Amino acid sequence: MKERIDIMSELTHIIFNIQRFSVNDGPGIRTTVFMKGCMLNCLWCHNPESKSPRPQLMLTPRQCIGCGECVRVCPKALHSFTEDGVHLIDRGSCTGCGTCAQECVGALELCGKEMAADEIIKEVMKDLPFYKNSGGGMTVSGGDPLFDPAFTLELVKKAKEAGLHVCIETSGFSKWENVEALIPCVDLFLWDVKETDSARHKEYTGVPNELILDNLRRLDAAGAKTVLRCPVIPGYNDRSEHFAAIAALAESLSHVQEINVEPYHPLGQSKSEAIGKEYALAGLAFPKEEVVKEWIAEIQNNTRVPVKKA
Amino acid sequence: MPSPRIQALEKQCARIGQSQPESHFMKDYHSSALTLYKDCPQWEKTARAMAYAIVNQEASVLPGDTIGGRVYHLKEAPVEKTDPDLDYLTEARAAFRKVYPEADELFENQLIGGTAVGHITWFFDRILSLGVTGLRARYEEALSHARDEEAGQFYQGVLILLDALLEFNDKHIEVCRKAGNDELAERMARVPRYPCRTFREAVQSFFMQHIVVMKENPFGGNGPGRLDYYLWPYLERDLAAGRITMEEAREIIDELFLRIDERLYGRDTWVEAIVVGGTYPNGCSAVNPLTYMMVESIMELDITHPSVYIRLPENPPEDLLRLSARYMTSGRNRAQILYDPAVIGALVERGTPMRDAVEYACGGCMEVGVQGMTSDYLYIGYHNPLKMLELMITGGVCLRTGKKIRSFHAEKSLAGYDNFEDFYRDFIEEAGRLTRIYLHEQDIFSERAQKARPSYLISSMIDDCLERGRNMHAGGARYHDYGGTPIALPNVADCLYAIRRAVFEDKICTADELIGALKDDFADCARLQKQLRNLPKYGMDHAEADEMARRVAADFADMYLSYRTRWGGKGKPVILTFVYAPRAAAILGATADGGNAGRLISHGVTPQSSSMTEGITAAISSTGRMPFEKFAGGASTMWDFDSSWATVPVIEAVLKTFIEKGGQIFQGNTTPLEELLDAQLHPEEHRQLIVRVGGYSARFVALTKELQDDIIGRMRHGA
């Protein structure tokens, strides 16, 4: 028996954030576990640091005081400063060992920490009284939880054993078997509907949407509860046909609890820069409140499922 | 929406409130003492001069009033000559300075505070149930067999004041009749002279005694206390008899609240607290329909007085929790919620029997005291442990001025210690010495007040003044406690934890390096400053940092609780920050937790804003580790909420978890940050914006820039 437990707890995954007091990722007050690794590559990605499954070094130049400790401790001498004091990192050779981040006083941070499911559950359980009083619980997000379905399954099983309400936030782009296995341990799927037109879906996210929608239908047929999460990006998917298709999709299913409109926010930009990547939608601004209300109304006109801003 | 009549009264309240007539009360008090009663002994002179000033006030009744009595507090006519016999400050100050010649330095460095009076509640229900006549009879009876001369003098003083209350009341009856308001004239002829028979009479009787008691004791912080608790039996009877509807009762409460506000209009640091809900002596919930009505009323009125606070009994009814959450989100930042088991538990721990502890109320902001049993140094002010820690680190040198502060006893600086525990012990010992000086100061003032401010009227409604034959300062009050505030305890905890880790455990720096960095306000020490900032802090749900906060708070609480006042009461720690953050910041140097000189301190036991990086749930979990059982004077928490998520269900869940974790007092703001910033730029457009400052609520645009910035700078926990 002991041996089996050891084997069970051997599964780990790289986690980049465990965010307590999440009130926008499912019902009540929740803790959201952000896993690294994603199957998609969305232009508007809010969490660009989550795409790679490996730990990554993040640099916030504002926080750098130019003390040079990173230059001193890096085993591969990848840090340097220009004469103007600009902090450079040779990212190609960085293994994400994190030595520099440990010495740094705030500018360098290693994004991603290897954690076992038990460790995560221990952290999540800290807010149990808040879940109990608010109908909240744990949400697994990412990245994408289905990037590592075996680990996610173990995590949600343990969460259920601990009596937690569990949500999974996913793009749904995975083999059906992986989704199906989660059903008994997940109370609510926060299912991304990024684009209803498959060609556009591929253009914006790198993959077509047939598998995603097929999984959603099968999930619904199995009686699983879902919330459709719809990022709306001005100039990309703020089209009436898309809004109509979202409403029609919700109408065609039986267990959709809610449709969430997630208006574009440019918060991914600074994080892109921090990991040394270019941001595809640079310059795109927050949509205005009235515009968001119009989007919501447009979807709501064609469905009985409640549409809300997330 | 208030009724059209109440809306009209609301406008009238603002109009009269803003242009109050001048009061000659203090002038009359002193001039009559100097002339009419100059040959009386002091006990009698104070009584008769006070009675004269009360009776001599104008009786004013306006058309449409259904509650009689108008007195004002904002404009006092200048007093040309004061009678030294009535002066309770000058002589006491001199006496204090005689004992402590270093007083000025202690005050300037906030090592001790001054003294404030008031902050109590009294048993006005005695007048409701007995009438002034009935109460008077008890004192007549006591006078007939007074145990000594002093008792006899006290009883006579009370009788003089009770008669003055009636005489002032009776002046209104004629005025009412002349104005054709016979109904009010009838009511005022009946009460407060005789016991109340109806809810309307109870409200009238309450208000008349209230305004007169508040003239005798014109100190912000004195207040009605459990008004719903004492008024409900009258309303209940009227409802059962079909004499009144809930709508009619609501209109009476609305009018009452407007009249309370009119006297104090705009003077927001003057707090008259009504504490609704709570618990009966047998432990059952005392929540009644008036509890809800009073909260609903204040939520709809555009006034800052009275402060209406909710006492949640154990296992609070679901709808009261919901109302509390709604009060937080749409009560215009006036809500303050107290949790009975945590507050009562601390009072019992202090040594207050349960039957008394359940009767607690707030005098003013949140100073917890037992209604009608507590003397009036219940809140004296604050002193600054963070400054003490600064001096402990430097060996007594002020970081702001570079001067040696001799009244702070430190033999050596932090560099002279080779372990943390010795440093901590010496710090607590010196802080304890200073705290005892601070509390002794109150004994000296109380001794003077006993003669110069005998407070006969309010004492007549405080237990056990009648039995003991003494006014409340002279040992008449059952609990002769002094409540004071050691401010910035979360900051102190974070600094001590940083010192332990940085200097003694992790050896990030030496003590001398730390002292040098603090002296330079971290100029050229950016790395050390960041390292100090990066250490765990109270508020991150970090066991060690939280334990330090618990330890520091418990030790400071014990400094208070271990003091015995001149009548055997205790010192009571009252943990709040009120308007003190800018004042404290003005004298503080850089801090060992990485804070720059002049940084604003935390509020009550709420973690520092900069420490709450793990979210509000973590911060509340940390707060739950504070030794609330020791905070017999109450410990406040301030939670500023991001309006994007501050919905009723979320706040309800947060509040419920807060009280389950043993939290005592919950208050906060929900106004969007943008609105506050806009109000700074365009004050004329935000005249009605009310914010919770800390223990009280005020119109935002009337606050100083420093206090506005304090509120704007608080952590809002964006989700």
Tell me what the structure shows.
The complex is a heterodimer of chains A (310) and B (719). Mean pLDDT of chain A is 94; it is low at 1-7. Chain A starts with a helix and ends with a strand. The longest helix of chain A is centred in the middle third of the chain and has 13 residues, at 149-161. Helix content of chain A is 34%, strand content 23%. Chain A has helices at residues 2-8, 69-73, 99-103, 117-124, 128-134, 149-161, 176-182, 198-205, 210-221, 240-252, 268-274, 289-300, and strands at residues 12-22, 30-35, 56-59, 79-81, 87-89, 108-111, 113-116, 137-142, 165-170, 188-192, 226-232, 256-263, 307-309. Chain A has twelve helices and 13 strands. Chain A folds into two domains: 2-53 and 115-309, Aldolase class I (TIM Barrel, Alpha-Beta Barrel); 56-111, Alpha-Beta Plaits (2-Layer Sandwich), CATH 3.30.70.20. Chain B is of the alpha/beta class and 719 residues long. Chain B has a domain at 100-115 and 375-566 and 575-625. Chain B has helices at 4-18, 25-34, 42-55, 90-99, 103-108, 125-144, 149-178, 182-190, 199-216, 227-240, 246-264, 289-300, 318-330, 340-350, 354-357, 385-394, 420-452, 456-459, 465-468, 489-505, 511-519, 526-534, 543-561, 580-585, 616-623, 648-660, 673-681, 705-712; strands at residues 273-277, 307-312, 336-339, 360-363, 367-370, 381-383, 482-486, 571-573, 636-640, 665-669, 690-692, 697-699. In chain B, helix 13 (318-330) packs across helix 26 (648-660). Chain A binds chain B through residues 19-24, 28-29, 65, 67, 69, 105-106, 126-127, 129-130, 133-134, 136, and chain B through 526-527, 530-531, 533-534, 541, 614-618, 621, 645, 649-650, 652-654, 656-657, 660-661, 717, 719.
